[in-house]
Fold this sequence. Notes:
This protein has helices at 12-33, 40-52, 64-74, 91-99, 144-154, 206-216, 237-269, 320-329, 359-367, 379-395; strands at 57-61, 82-85, 103-106, 109-110, 115-116, 129-133, 157-161, 169-170, 173-174, 181-185, 199-203, 275-277, 298-300, 313-317, 368-371. The protein is α/β, with parallel strands linked by helices. It folds into two domains: 12-247, Aspartate Aminotransferase, domain 2, CATH 3.40.640.10; 250-395, Alpha-Beta Complex (Aspartate Aminotransferase, domain 1). Helix 2 packs parallel to helix 7, helix 3 (64-74) packs parallel to helix 4 and helix 7 (237-269) crosses helix 10 (379-395). The longest helix is centred in the middle third of the chain and has 33 residues, at 237-269. It is globular and about 70 Å long. The two termini are 13 Å apart.
Amino acid sequence: MSQKINVPLLDLHAQYRTIKPEIEKAVAEVLASQQFILGPKVTECEAAIAKYSNVAHGVGASSGTDTLLMCLMAENIGPGDEVITTPYTFFATAGCISRVGAKPVFVDVNPATYNINAAAIEAAVTPRTKAIMPVHLYGQMADMDPIMAVAQKHKLTVIEDAAQAIGAEDKGRRAGSIGHYGSFSFFPSKNLGAAGDGGMVVTNDAARAEKLRVVRAHGSKPKYYHKIIGGNFRLDSIQAAIVTVKLAHLDSWTKARQNNARRYDRLFAESGLKIADSGASPRPGLLAQRAGGDGAHVITPKVFGSRHIFNQYVIRVAPRDALKAYLDSRGIGTEIYYPVPMHLQECFASLGHRTGAFPESEAAARETLALPIYPEVSEEQARYVVECVRDFFLAAK
Ligand SMILES: *Cc1c(COP(=O)(O)O)cnc(C)c1O
């Protein structure tokens, strides 16, 4: 057994050390200006993110949750309406649909990517369906062509939840640039994180961008005249200034994450464990669940499309919780994204779903585990992580 070393799931200090002077300068400028809400720093950030995402307009907002809410409000989606989404996501996606009074309609995920199974969406469309909200989970985009085709056929709005996928591409097209709206989060653990909460909606439609700006400011235009009801969804100048500084580094951080992912792939392949990738056909089983023992110990993430930005590197294992506890005891931080799919959350009990309704999401919730993938993970740390996984399955038994 190798010497214990510490590998946190995410280490923001490592990144901050490399950009501290730039961040401090940007924050000092905001403080000197004493303009804290919206203003030139937000406008600059909106233009930069829109350009980066190859989209015409950016509308900065208070979080990647509020951005989803703003899109739904801008489309007047509410009671009696249905929005199709994935049950295997962060809560905000489904939560926002319910918050506007609409009904989240779930479509199970494709186990190769953990993204919504695009081929199954059309069967979920009803006369009440107003929108589709695909999530680009872990930094890899959902299969957008069939999603857009169904949307076009049934005249539905597509809101891409790209909170984990800024800069990701599907066949060369950037996350957020394909649907009617793209929603980003600047939560600190996302690939482009602020020093607090923040988010942005991007859209190619000038009228939609304008409506979002009105929704963002209590529905008022001009000030104190309210044609619609909005909220306070504004982005702070300090957060915008920090995000703009960090955006210049994003591609190098993305490259480091991609290299880390390839390194895990290679180390797993060399580990002596039985490895399959999530796109393998026929679908790989997990060793611990198979009497014959011909399945894999670890299923690694398969990259489809053109650019996976690896917000997370998620493996699939069984028994997952025991491995997580073992890695924790060895100093390695991991996380379960997500332990309970949306259709089984207590708050959605009124939707009436039972265990077994979305089996792929339920299996993913049982078996997935995110390993440390942040840009500064060292070769030594990555080797140690894979050694510990190997020890768990082979040496410890
Ligand atoms: C992080 C995240 C959000 C919410 O973003 P916040 O900025 O934390 O509100 C929404 N959807 C997904 C898929 C996310 O990962």
